[in-house]
Amino acid sequence: MGQKKLKPEFVPLAQWIDKAYDVKTINIIYDTLDNKTPRIQICFEYEKEKNKFLTHDISYFDKSKQKEIGEKFAEIIKQQVLSRSNSSISNIFGLNKNGIYLTDNVFVIYGAFEPVAKLEATYKITQKQTEEFIKSFDYKDIWTISIGFTIPTFFMFTDEKVKGYDKPEIKSMWADKYYDFVKPFDEFNYFKRADIQEYIDSKENFENNYESNWYYYYK
Questions:
Q1: What is the pLDDT of residues 147-204, one digit of tens each?
Q2: Which range of residues forms the domain containing residue 194?
Q3: Which has the closest alpha carbon to 25: 145, 126, 108?
Q4: Residue 45 CA from chain centroid, whole number
Q5: DSSP 28-95
Q6: Are residues 179 and 84 in the same domain?
Q7: How far apart are CA 25 and CA 16, in angstroms?
Q8: Same domain, 207 and 141
Q9: Are the C-beta atoms of 198 and 175 separated by less than 8 Å?
Q10: Exposed/middle/buried for 110, CB within 10 Å: 0-12, 13-18, 19+?
Q11: Rounded distance between C-alpha atoms, residue 198 and residue 208, angstroms
Q12: Average pLDDT score over residue span 108-126
């Protein structure tokens, strides 16, 4: 998994974003929706940087920041004489020259490299390796371990067994073991022991309340 190089025409916008919002932009990706609406994705390294541009309500995106960045994108692209109108003839007929950008009503979204890299690290773990990891605990009460969205959930066979293992000292020990297990797959060194958290659940709960379906469980 690599990071594409920031295009020269986007460098001034990245520098402006970094100064205005105290972040580090590692890439800006441009595309269009239905050949009409320009969209730019501002990519940061860390999730905490991306979160600066989101809200905690239903709107999700901070509208004022979206507007500011979209307008700044249009301004910078026009200064470089690289813009065209959304209603231009070339746009209507789907003709798009490389290096020429639509700049009317730019839709701004965000991404972060860290969570993607961590997720891809867990994708590298094979079923066989997971099974060997489970065996290393030497507990017959563990049914399986599910690594959903980088957070491991240890499944006991029954709800009653969960009560016996859901203790701080046990969870801390298991977090240590999980960290040692996942770290060799962590190409970009994003997994930190202090950030590791784990859950304990049961096969009984999974079957009775989620129809033994992982989609329902993580929905």
A1: 988 899 999 999 999 999 999 999 999 999 999 999 999 999 999 999 998 999 999 9
A2: 124-218
A3: 108
A4: 10
A5: EEEEEETTTEEEEEEEESSHHHHGGGB-SSTT-B-HHHHHHHHHHHHHHHHHTT-EE-TTSHHHHTT-
A6: no
A7: 10
A8: yes
A9: yes
A10: buried
A11: 22
A12: 95
The total of structural domains in the chain comes to 2
* pLDDT for residue 81 is more than 90: yes
Q: What is the pLDDT of residues 3-30, one digit of tens each?
A: 568 999 999 999 999 999 999 999 999 9
Tokens of 148: 């959903």
Do residue 90 and residue 19 come from a single domain?
yes
Assigned token pair, 166: 């859901």
- Residue 164 domain-assigned (yes or no): yes
pLDDT of residue 57: 83
Instruction: Name residue 208's amino acid.
Output: N
Angle at 90 between CA 89 and CA 91, to 5 degrees: 90
Query: Which of residues 101, 117, 133 is at a domain's end?
Result: 117
Residue 192, judged by CB atoms within 10 A of its CB (0-12, 13-18, 19+), counts as exposed
